[in-house]
Amino acid sequence: MQITKSIRRTIASILLTAGLAYPACAAVCPKGIGGCTSPGRCFLFVDADGNSLCDYTARTVSQTSAGPISSGPTVPVNSPASVPATAPAADPVSVSLTPAPASTQSVTPVIATSDTTTPVIQNTATGNFLDSIHLSAPIAEAALFLLFAGIFFAFIRTGILGIRIEKTLPALALSSLFALGFSLIATSFVAGTTIAGTTYALCYMGAGSLLAAYLWHAGVMTRRIVLGVAGLSTLTGFVFLAPIMPMELGGIVNVVTGVSPLNVGIIVICAVIALALLLGRTFCGQICPVGSLQELVYAIPVTKFVIRRTTVLALIRLVVFIATVAAALFLIDLMAFTGLYDLFSLTISVLLIVAAGIMLLSVFLYRPVCRILCPFGALFSILAEFSVFRLRRTETCISCKKCEKACPAKTAGKHDLKGECYLCGRCTEICPANEALEYIRTNNRLIGHSSANLPVHLQNNSREFSGIGSNRTGEQKRRSDVDKR
C-alpha cells in the first residue's frame, strides 16, 4: 500500500518538530533540515529549476502557490530595466494575481516566496574576490595547492613541524594531503558562494582517502601524523559542512526509491564506500570529519571506558542501520536527531546539546558514533573485513600482544574482526619489533604459507597468527641462516 506524500509529510512534520524546534518544511528534506542556512553545501542539494534554492526547501512553498507566482515577481522585482520608476516594488506582485477577491489571501504566500528568494538572489549577484581579480576558482585552487604543497614539503623535509620524512614520494604525498585541505578551505573563502561547499568536500573525500592509503603503505604514517590529518579533516567539516556521513544515508535511499535524482555527491559517497574493499577504512580513519573529531577528543588523557564485546556494538549499529533505512522511506532522517549537522554548522539548537553530549562521551569511549550510531559504519566494516590492503602482522612479530592492549577498538587480536580497524596508529606506535605491523596486501608469502623457512620459535608464532603476513623477507632470511648454523 503506497502512502501519499501528504500523509508522509504530516508524520515527518510531527516527529521532526516535536521538541526539536525544526520547521515543518523539514518534512520534505531528506536530511530533516528544511530551512537550510547554507544552500548548496548539502550533499543532497538539488536545484533543477535553477533558482539557487534547494528544491526540497522550495517544494513546500511552490506547492502552496502556483508555479508562475515564483517566476512572475522575480523578473520585475530584480530587474531595474523592467520596473517603471514610478511603480512600487509590490505592484508587479499584485498584478500577477488578477482575481481581486482572492488577492488579499494569495498575496501572503507570494510575499513569503519573494522574501525567501531575495537573500539568495543578492548573494549570487554579489561579487567575490576572484571576480574582482578576474580569476576562476579552479585556477585559484591549483595555484593555492602548489603554494601550500611547496611550503609543507619544505617543512616536512626539514622537520620544522616535528614530522620529518626523508623519502621524496612519501613526503610529497603527505604535503599534498595537507595542501589539498588547506587550499580547498582557502579557495572556499575567496570564491564565496559561487561554488558549493559540497564540491570542495568531494575533492577532499576522494583524493584524501587515496593519499592516506598511500602514506600507510609507504610506512610513514605515525600517530602524530594521524592526529594532524584528523585536525585538518575536522576543520574541513566545519568549513564545508560535508560530508557529515551519518546523515547521508537518506540521500542514497531517496535515490534508490526515486524520490530524489542521482547527483555527484551520492556517486562519490558510493565510490568511497566501495573503495573500502580495496583500501580498508582510510576514509573513516583519516578523512571523515565526524570520525576525525572523535579521534581528537579521545586523545585527551583521561581514564577510558573499553568495551571488549564489540559484537554487541556491531549488532546495535545494524539495528540503527535498518531503522535509518526504514525511516528514510518516509522521508525521515533519524541521524538528524544526533545533532551532528547542528554541531558542524554551529547552529544553536536543542540538538546541538545532543551532539555535544556525544562528543563528551567520545572522550571516554572510542568513536561511539562510528561504532554504534553511524549506519555507514555497518557498510564500511563489511567491506573492510575483506579489503585488499590493511594492517597485517609480518613474520617479525614477537607475539608481545602490546598492539592488542593499545587498540581502542579491540581489533588487533587473533580472532578480532579487522573491519573495525580505524587506522589510528596506536598499534604501530607501540610495537617494539621492526616492521612487525605493515599496511600491505595479501600475497603468497603470508605467515602460514612460508613458515617452513622460519626458526622454531617463529613457526609457533606463524601458527598462532596464521593469515597475517608481509611482503618483506629480509629479516626472515637472516634468522633462517642463523638457525641453520
The gist of it:
By secondary structure, the chain is mostly helical. 57% of the residues lie in helices and 2% in strands. The chain has three domains: 5-125, no CATH class; 138-382, no CATH class; 391-484, no CATH class.
What does this molecule look like?
The protein has 485 residues and is mostly helical. Helices cover 57% and strands 2% of the residues. It has 24 helices and two strands. It has a two-stranded antiparallel sheet with strand order 1-2. The longest helix is centred in the middle third of the chain and has 24 residues. 41% of the residues are buried.
Tell me the strand percentage band: under 5%
Query: Low-confidence segments, ≥5 residues, pLDDT <50?
Result: 12-28, 37-41, 56-126, 444-485
Order of helices and strands: HHHHHHHHHHHHHHHHHHHHEHHEHH
Question: Based on helices, strands and strand pairing, what is the structural class?
Answer: mainly alpha
- SS field, number of helical segments: 24
User: What is the number of E strands?
Assistant: 2
Spatial separation of the terminal alpha carbons: 79 Å
List the main descriptive attributes of the protein structure presented here.
2 strands; 3 domains; mainly alpha; two-stranded antiparallel ribbon; 485 residues
What topology does this entry show?
Elements: H1 5-17, H2 55-64, H3 67-71, H4 74-78, H5 91-96, H6 103-125, H7 129-132, H8 137-158, H9 168-191, H10 197-218, H11 223-240, H12 249-257, H13 264-279, H14 282-287, H15 289-298, H16 310-328, H17 340-344, H18 350-364, H19 368-373, H20 375-384, E1 389-393, H21 402-406, H22 426-430, E2 437-441, H23 456-464, H24 474-484
